[in-house]
Amino acid sequence: MTLAIHYPALQVVLPLLAAPLCSLMRGRDFAWAFATLVSWLAFGIAVALLFAVRADGAISYHLGGWEPPWGIEYRVDALGSYLLAIVTLISAVSLSFARLSVAREVRQDQHALFYTMWLLCLAGMLGIAITGDAFNIFVFLEVSSLSTYALVAMGGGGDRRALTAAYQYLVLGTIGATFILIGIGLIYMMTGTLNILDMSERLPAVADTRTIRVAAGFLTIGIALKLALFPLHVWLPNAYTYAPNAVSAFIAGTSTKVSLYLLLRFSLTVFGPTFSFGKLPLNEILAVLAVAAFLIFSALAILQENVKRLLAYSSIAQVGYMVLGISFASVTGLTAGIVHLFNHALIKTGLFLCVACVAYRIGSVRITAMAGLGRQMPFTMFAFVLGGFGLIGVPLTAGFVTKWYLIMAALEAGTSLGLVAAGLVLVSSLLAVIYVWKVVESAYFRPAPAGSPPVREAPLALLVPTWALILASIYFGIDTRISVGVARDAAVALLGGIS
Amino acid sequence: MTWLGHFNYWIFVVLMMIGLYIVISRGNLVKKIVGLNVFQTSVFLLYISMGKIWDGTAPIVTDALMDGRPVAYSNPVPHVLILTAIVVGVATTALGLAFVVRIKESYGTIEEDEIQHMDEEAFLARSEHLGGQP
């Protein structure tokens, strides 16, 4: 197969070229069908790459035939291919879901542009995961961010607060991206290269300079802003709450994951574990922020009345789990962090899709408005319960796998700080029980308001993608061979300093 | 006077701080975008400075090189990189201003605290409305 060697380029080029074509599509559902097809094709390519990397190791693709480090290199390694598969899967499933939901929330004449933005966002995120060139990362980051801002603002048709949310996201996102740009520039000053592998080889010689330490600072803060790591999370709740429902599901499963990938890539591949965790106290800083994130935001999620906002707060908490895994700086810890990328993407996107089903039928996402829905929309609400189990980390769900590895990593580390963190993970899980219970109580144990019109179950076109993700999150809670296997490969490669 | 020799880096730092300060301190949404622009422009200076060396010339074959005299070249890569970043900056500004226009259309103001006030009042009004229901 000659096409197969060009999969790394096609992975990005396909959605990138499809985007302008999509903007020309007219007529009912045409743009949607096209974008969905492209997204599933991208998923197919990502799966092919994932298995190719599993079988033969990292793939290096030289764009235009220029040898790295002069030319731009696309490099697919274990971590990269894992992320490609996650992002394309979430995009394909949420696009399959999107037709009815978007038709209701976005004006008909904007549909073509809406799906164009979606494809651009997808192309940008795939580019970040695949490129081996630091400056390319910045460019793709801005491609995906700018289209995400526009997607969030598309919710402005129904609620004007989507506009201020998008504006706030734009300002903070741009500051984050510019910090990343400064960091990359400072590294380039000292190493004279933009290729990530070349950088990692040249960095140790100049690691003891102030320029490199400052670069590490700028990069970490810039990425933390994009990652919504506490206390740089301010943009996230509003953006998730007011975006169109399908967009919330999409970005909840992808955008913070891609940022976490950047954190891993820069702190471990570029700077290397000895610099990040030895010379700089990055792991201690991350551990404190991560614990604060999941404790504070699991608690705050309990207070929310809007289910989308509740899930957004829970997302900030879940980012905390991932970062805590990284902060252990061990193979088990990193495995926990990386596998949670995948597990949380499945669970959170599945939950946002459930909420989108509810919004499609009753037009509200408030907990009080969901009273009595357990009987009226049994399939949707049961999916929400199963997804909620995943957030809590009940055994046999994907969330349990993560917490299992997190606590194993804490026990392995054996430090008192690690043990305290493990205990706090359990506390945070108990808080998750409360905020999931709030929704369950309203849906199952409160009667529907008297005189309210009867609500029908969500249509099959919405239920199928939702259940696909929820069942996947259960499946990967039981059979962890692929999800944990790839995550462990990636963790070993990252800590070995080679990618 | 080595610190004076790096004056363009000092300008970078000062501009960056001014830009960030404007973004944080101003409540007017257009002024925030202006601050963001100053902040981004400062990074352009950083990249342009790092590529330029004193008496450096463009990386082309010159008469001096043909005569066998030593020639200093400036590094063109950062300049090319920052062209891309400038384009990104223009796109960000355009999108940001487009949001401001839409915000002005739906709120009637572009002052952050007024918008916040309106959102809070709408929230209170809605909860009272809900509280009135049985």
UniProtKB/TrEMBL annotation, chain A:
GO terms for cellular component: plasma membrane. Keywords: Cell membrane, Membrane, Transmembrane, Transmembrane helix. It is found in: Cell membrane; Membrane. Residues 133-421 form the NADH:quinone oxidoreductase/Mrp antiporter transmembrane domain. It is a multi-pass membrane protein. Its main location: membrane. PANTHER family: NA(+)_H(+) ANTIPORTER SUBUNIT D1, NADH DEHYDROGENASE. This is Na(+)/H(+) antiporter subunit D. It comes from Oceanibacterium hippocampi.
From TrEMBL, chain B:
InterPro entries: CPA3_antiporter_subunitC, NUOK/Mnh_C1-like. It comes from the Bacteria. Pfam families: Oxidored_q2. It is a multi-pass membrane protein. The keyword Isomerase does not apply. The keyword Membrane applies. One of its GO terms (cellular component) is plasma membrane. Belongs to the CPA3 antiporters (TC 2.A.63) subunit C family. This is Na(+)/H(+) antiporter subunit C1. It comes from Oceanibacterium hippocampi.
